Amino acid sequence: MAKPSTVFTCTACGATQTKWSGRCEACGAWNTIVEDVPLSAGPAKKSLGPARGRRLALSDLATSEPEPPRAASGLGEFDRVLGGGLVPASAILVGGDPGIGKSTLLLQAAAAFANQGLKCLYISGEEASAQVRMRARRLGLAEAPVKLATETDLRAILTTLEAEKPDLAIIDSIQTLWADMVDSAPGSVAQVRASAHELTVFAKRHGTAVMLVGHVTKEGQIAGPRVVEHMVDTVLYFEGERGHQFRILRSVKNRFGPADEIGVFEMTGGGLAEVANPSALFLSERGTPAPGAAVFAGIEGTRPVLTEIQALVAPSPLGTPRRSAVGLDAGRLSTTLAVLEARCGIPFAGFDVYLNVAGGLKVTEPAADLAVAAALLSAREDVALPPDCVLFGEISLSGALRPVAQTENRLKEALKLGFSSAIAPERSKLGAPGGMKVRQMPDLTAFVGEIFGAG
């Protein structure tokens, strides 16, 4: 490797020259020329070389800066997931299954922000303008002051955004864009990475908030490189089952608000309607208490949500019984079954087990373990649980019940919906509201003996 050429720099003005001299030729200062070490010692075409950039202005951690201003759309559930509203110069990535309602949601959001006085552009790369206008008429948004365009050329889109200077730009979708400096087909990893980078940099430089729609893979992850999720400020997933009218917008990353926050919507003929009280909606179809049903008091982000966990245990004609879980991790179901058999002596070896979270909600927190175990035991013993009781608690491999966070918020939400009793682990910080009877259990064996009369 060739030795990098020596560079001399003036400490007064920063000018560079190839040899030392007593006087700077640029500013005329004397004795200010010093030998400079190149930034990188690699090959000239593969490294930074001797050229230097501008010096950054540094600040300490005690420097106080005001909170970023937020623009509220008026859609309470959408603003909640964003952390309280739209932050200028932010980049937001929205993913979801095909046909789940991503374009409908963002068109409604664009209309809501536009009605609040923001300048909004909706650029579609998948649909023609007539299709977007038809959807707007169906949703009753035809009069909203939203500017519309259809384009897939990234250079043309950035030129238009620079000229229009909107407050919010929605790109539907990032997989349809193509950049002319990348030699690959639209939708490829290189094109998606380049398009997302250019749009994110544009958002930071010009103060425009950019929302990108992303396709998902069969596994439910946003298609393309995961680096796209690291580029943006917020990543939202739009979830829901085709057979349910509920749609859940979940924040899995948010630099301006809490992660794992959810917004609940109901799909109607006139678009997506926000649901202010999702617990009442998820429990609205509960009828006469039946075996295999348990109400779980969970926490989604900062909001307590009550939902019903349903289980079915039936004799299996197969040598290997089936294990099916919808809305819950199948691994946690298998762990709970193993703990019930090893610690409580209740076998499920000859039974098919089916578990479902009602309403299409996906439960990820370990606090659902106790409700899952209760639903499984209720279905196996054909005994209905008390209709006014909620459950929550994490089950360890030893069979002990571990306390969970935000117990008081769970109990308040249950009391508000008419539940009068709860079963929780010992050592939980209750602070129970008046009218709520809480039974604390030390382990799973004590729970089985008290509720089902076996141990």
TrEMBL record:
GO terms for cellular component: cytosol. Residues 352-455 are annotated as: Lon-protease-like. GO terms for molecular function: ATP binding; ATP-dependent DNA damage sensor activity; damaged DNA binding; hydrolase activity; zinc ion binding. Keywords: ATP-binding, DNA damage, DNA repair, DNA-binding, Hydrolase, Metal-binding, Nucleotide-binding, Stress response, Zinc, Zinc-finger. Coiled coil: none annotated. CDD domains: RadA_SMS_N. Residues 67-216 form the RecA family profile domain. It comes from the Bacteria. It holds the Pfam family ChlI. GO terms for biological process: recombinational repair. SMART domains: AAA. A motif (RadA KNRFG motif) lies at residues 253-257. ATP binds at residues 96-103. HAMAP family: RadA_bact (MF_01498). DNA-dependent ATPase involved in processing of recombination intermediates, plays a role in repairing DNA breaks. Stimulates the branch migration of RecA-mediated strand transfer reactions, allowing the 3' invading strand to extend heteroduplex DNA faster. Binds ssDNA in the presence of ADP but not other nucleotides, has ATPase activity that is stimulated by ssDNA and various branched DNA structures, but inhibited by SSB. Does not have RecA's homology-searching function. Plays a role in repairing double-strand DNA breaks, probably involving stabilizing or processing branched DNA or blocked replication forks. NCBIfam families: sms. Belongs to the RecA family. RadA subfamily. The middle region has homology to RecA with ATPase motifs including the RadA KNRFG motif, while the C-terminus is homologous to Lon protease. This is DNA repair protein RadA. It comes from Rhodovulum visakhapatnamense.
